[in-house]
């Protein structure tokens, strides 16, 4: 199930061009890093078949990996819609978590009803370094919640993300990942041969690749 899910998710992302490649004009992530690849999973919401596929695979993954939970939480903003769809399918309450407290009104960081002691699975659309995702986890833990883990559509499989999740003691499960995406992209001839070398160098050392591009 996991291998099939990883393959099909990667194939869907490539079909709808959710994955962008640009070696000459790299993308800038929220972390400030430069990258030749960017994955915009919000596009999946515009395709009912793919949206339903992702929702159901999330539901299956949560049930298999984490069992019953009290609340589903989405990470703002990419995880809000996906999380709400999952919560609806599971018949669970839903909340979403901002990157920081609002500066006005009730100054909430967590929007929705949640109580100390409740178990939570966090839904994210994408994991790069994991920094913003883990901010949501910390906010929920500060409320006294038991965060069982996190699910995401895609991860770049960066070493820094793996370390960040291990240090935070958070289990991360994803529908697909960078390595599977590249395999499918080569199979589908989505990636030009000329781009493969740059993608390989970036994957081997993202920090060095980013620094070199910023200094050009």
List the helices and strands and how they pair.
Layout: H1 2-15, E1 19-21, E2 27-28, E3 34-35, E4 37-39, H2 48-66, E5 71-75, H3 78-90, E6 94-97, E7 110-111, E8 119-127, H4 131-142, E9 146-155, H5 159-167, E10 172-177, H6 178-187, H7 193-204, H8 206-214
Parallel strand pairs: 5-6, 5-8, 8-9, 9-10
Antiparallel strand pairs: 1-4, 2-3, 6-7
Helix pairs in contact: 1-6, 2-3, 7-8
Descriptive notes:
With 216 residues, this protein is an alpha/beta fold. The protein has one domain (2-194): 3-Layer(aba) Sandwich (Rossmann fold). Helix content is 45%, strand content 21%. The protein contains 8 helices and 10 strands. The protein has helices at residues 2-15, 48-66, 78-90, 131-142, 159-167, 178-187, 193-204, 206-214, and strands at residues 19-21, 27-28, 34-35, 37-39, 71-75, 94-97, 110-111, 119-127, 146-155, 172-177. Strands 7-6-5-8-9-10 form a 6-stranded mixed beta sheet, with helices on both faces. A hairpin with a 5-residue loop joins β2 (27-28) and β3. α7 crosses α8. The longest helix has 19 residues, at 48-66. The protein starts with a helix and ends with a helix. The mean pLDDT is 91.
Q: Characterize the main sheet.
A: 6 strands, mixed
According to CATH, the fold-level topology is Rossmann fold
Summed up, the helix count is: 8
Tell me the Rg in angstroms.
17 Å
Number of strands: 10
- Tell me, what is the CATH class? Alpha Beta
Shape: globular
Strand content: 15-25%
Helix content: 40-55%
Strand order of the largest sheet: 7-6-5-8-9-10
Secondary-structure content class: alpha/beta
Distance between the termini: 44 Å
Which consecutive residue ranges, at least 5 long each, have pLDDT under 50? Answer: none
| CATH architecture label | 3-Layer(aba) Sandwich
Helix-strand pattern: HEEEEHEHEEEHEHEHHH
Please give the oligomerization state of what you see. single chain
| Tally of individual domains | 1
Give the averaged pLDDT, no decimals.
Answer: 91
